[in-house]
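Running this now, will post back.
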Amino acid sequence: MFENLSEKLEKSFKILKGHGKITEINVAETLKEVRKALIDADVSYAIAKEFCDTVKQKALGKNVLTSIDPGQLMIKIVQDELTELMGGETQEVNIKGSPAIILIAGLQGSGKTTFSAKFANYLKTKKGKSVLLVAGDVYRPAAINQLQVLGEQIGVEVYTEDSKNPVQIAKNAVQRAKDKGINIVIVDTAGRLGIDEQMMNEIEAIKKAVNPQETLFVVDSMTGQDAVNTAKAFNDKLDFQGVVLTKLDGDTRGGAALTIRHVVNKPIKFVGIGEKMEALDVFHPQRMASRILGMGDIVSLVEKAQEQYDEEQARKISKKLKTNDFNFNDFLTQINQIKKMGNIKDLMGMIPGVGKMMKNIDINDDAFKGIEAIIGSMTPFERENPAKIDGSRRKRIARGSGTTIEDVNRLLKQFEETRKMMKMVGSGNKMNALKNIRRR
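Update: finished.
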C-alpha cells in the first residue's frame, strides 16, 4: 500500500541530502516535491498546500543541531504532520452496551457486507464477543446470501427476514440479541450506486429506530477523491462516528486515507487489506505514517505474530527440536501460522527498509501451495519420519503432488537445513546459527 507515494516522498527528501543545514531555499525545493507527491496520490490541492505550509513553518522554526541530518529532521516533521493529518491518536470502536449496536453504511460496491463479516470475526476472535450479523439489504438477495455464507464461514449467526422493511428487521434483530444475550449486533444496510435521498432517509430511519453506539461509514479507498466527497455527504446526514477504508491493498494512490479525516473530522477506525476474513486492521495513524515514509511498522508485525503464538505449541516444538523429532506435521503447522498473519508481501513491508526492496518483487499469496501439496502427498509415516523418505517414496510423492522429484528433493533439503538451524537457535548456539544464515 502507498508504494508510489512512498517512492516519491523518498525522492523529495534526497534534495536535502548533503546539506549541512535547513534553509528556506532547500526546504522550498523539498516541499515542492512533497506537494506534487501528495497531489499525485489524490490528495486535494488545498489540503496538500496546507500540509506543506505547516511543515515549512515547523522546519524553518527549528534550531538544527550540527549532529542532526537536515533530511532526517524533515522526515521526522513530515511523519508527525502525516500522523496528525490522519487523526493523531488511534481510536477504537465503541462496543459498550447490552447489546452494543453497530450500523454499517456506504455505497454499493464499497465492501460493506464483507467488512461486516470481517468485523464480526474480529470481535469474536480478538475481543471474545458474541455477535449477531443482520442482513438489512432487502433489495439485493445476493447481499443476504453473501452475508449468510460469510457468517457460516466464521461461525456467526446471521439474522434475516422475508420482510422488505429494513427498519423493522433491524429492530427485531436487536430484540433477538437481547433475548439470546448476544453482546454485539452489526447491521449491514443497503447500498446504492450513488447518493440519493431515498437511501439517506432509509438509513437515517434505521439509525433512529435502533440508536446504535456507532455508525461506521465504509468507503472504497480505490475511488480516490470521490471517496472523500461521499464521506462528507453521508456524514452530513448521519453524523457517523468512524470511517472504514476497504481495498487498501489494491492499486490505490492512498489519497483518501490521507484526507478523509481532515474533511469530515471523523477518525479512520479500520482498514481492509485483503479478501480473507482475518484481513482487517485497526487503523493506527502513527504506524501508517511510518510505513508511508518507508520506515516500516515493527509494532504491527509483532502484534500479528503474537496473535498466532501458541505457548503450549511452542513448548512442544522446542522439545521436539532438542530430541530431533521435529517433523513435517510440525513444519506444516508453522506454515499455517505464518499464513494466518496475512499477506506475505505486506508483512515484509512492515520491516524497516524491506518494503522498498520488495517493490518490484511479486510474492504470490499461494507461495506455500507447492510445499503444502508435497507434504499432503506424504503418508502419515513419511510426515513423522522424513529421514525414511527414499527414492521410490520421493517419486510417488512427486506424482501425487503434481510436482517433480527435484521439487521434492529441494523441500527435503530445505527442511533438514531449517531443522538444524532451529535446533542451534533452540539450544542456545545462536552464534553458529547466525553464521549459517549469513552463508546462505
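Residues 428-440 have pLDDT under 50 and may be disordered. More later if anyone needs it.
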